[in-house]
Amino acid sequence: MTDWRNSGAYAAPAPFRLVAREAKPEGSVVDIRGVQVGGPEIVVMAGPCSVEGRDQLLTTATSVRASGARILRGGAFKPRTSPYSFRGMREEGLELLAWAGRETGMPVVTEVMDTRQVGTVSEHADILQIGSRSMHNYPLLEEVGNLTTKPVLLKRGMGATVEELLLAAEYILNKGNGRVILCERGIRTFENATRNTLDLNAIPILKRLSHLPVIVDPSHGTGHWWMVPAMCRAALAVGADGLLVEVHCNPQEALSDGPQSLHPDRFDQMMKELRAVAQSVGRTVAPAQSAEPTCSGGVWG
What residues form DSSP beta bridges with 155? Predict the structure, then answer.
């Protein structure tokens, strides 16, 4: 029997319909306040793992924008393995993200963890992120599909297959929200040298099977800041439409995920390198702004 995974002219029908490449052969472009994910420009989303305070957030946001980031990322609600870890500033963090977005003119992406949060998060954020732990939360997937038309950034579960990721996206589209961005963020394997194994194989596969834009999160995919620039370059080379990168002004004092966060100086250098890679594959990365990134604090390594 023909396997749909061959994705050729004689392949069997895929178990997903709305997200399949055949449903929109030209590919989807998700517009977020003028920033287009899935178009010629490779969109970089950057910011701290967690919102920790007003100064920390604005300083980081201003720095990443100066380097060419187009969208501000930051966590207000944080799913943590340990209940004793910092779990975010919650509603106050959402308000700070919305404020920082207005101050910098950047759209904001942040995670929603519960069906009861969808309305509140939608009021403050431009993109709703479904984290890896929530990819199989089908009521939440249906809620962001049914309750809001805001774009949804859907992260692959750490133990999920490509098919499961696409079927999770199908839940959202099936409820009427077609503005979905897929995110590869690493899967859990036997290898323990890195936090996860960043599955760059998935990028061309997803682009072949689905019309949805695909971005890569190398921060969670590796767990090491020093690997992030190399994996970003590789992600662009294999066809990613964007990147989701953690940046912190003082990674050594970050309340969450400091070891995988780039200092703004290193982020700025990485952005310069990415422009050359993007050009080599016929795409672009936004130019740096006139203001130089300014951020004091400790730097790893």
Answer: 183
The DSSP output letter for 279 is H
Contact yes or no for 142/170 (Cβ under 8 A): no
Are the CB atoms for 152 and 171 separated by under 8 Å?
A: no
Q: Is the Cα dihedral 174, 118, 101, 153 positive or negative?
A: negative
Q: Give how far the C-alpha of residue 66 lies from the chain's centroid of Cα atoms, to the nearest Å.
A: 19
Report the distance separating Cα 97 and Cα 54, nearest Å. 9
Model pLDDT, residue 1: 39
**Whether 255 contacts 270, CB under 8 Å:** no
Question: Do strands 71-73 and 242-246 pair parallel, antiparallel, or not at all (unpaired)?
Answer: unpaired
* Cβ–Cβ < 8 Å for 208, 7: yes
The strand ranges marked E within the chain are 30-32, 35-37, 41-47, 71-73, 108-111, 127-130, 152-155, 180-184, 214-216, 242-246, 284-285
The secondary element (H helix, E strand) that includes residue 221 is helix 218-222
Give the pair of three-digit tokens for residue 179.
């503005």
Q: What is the pLDDT of residues 219-240, one digit of tens each?
A: 999 999 999 999 999 999 999 9
What is the Cα–Cα distance from 87 to 34, expressed in whole angstroms?
31
- In DSSP terms, 230 is beta-bridged to none
Amino acid present at 234: A
pLDDT tens string 53-73: 899 999 999 999 999 999 999
Query: What would the mean pLDDT of 111-118 be, rounded to a whole number?
Result: 94
Mean per-residue pLDDT, 199-208: 97
- Alpha-helical (H) ranges within 24-176 are 54-67, 90-104, 118-124, 138-146, 162-174
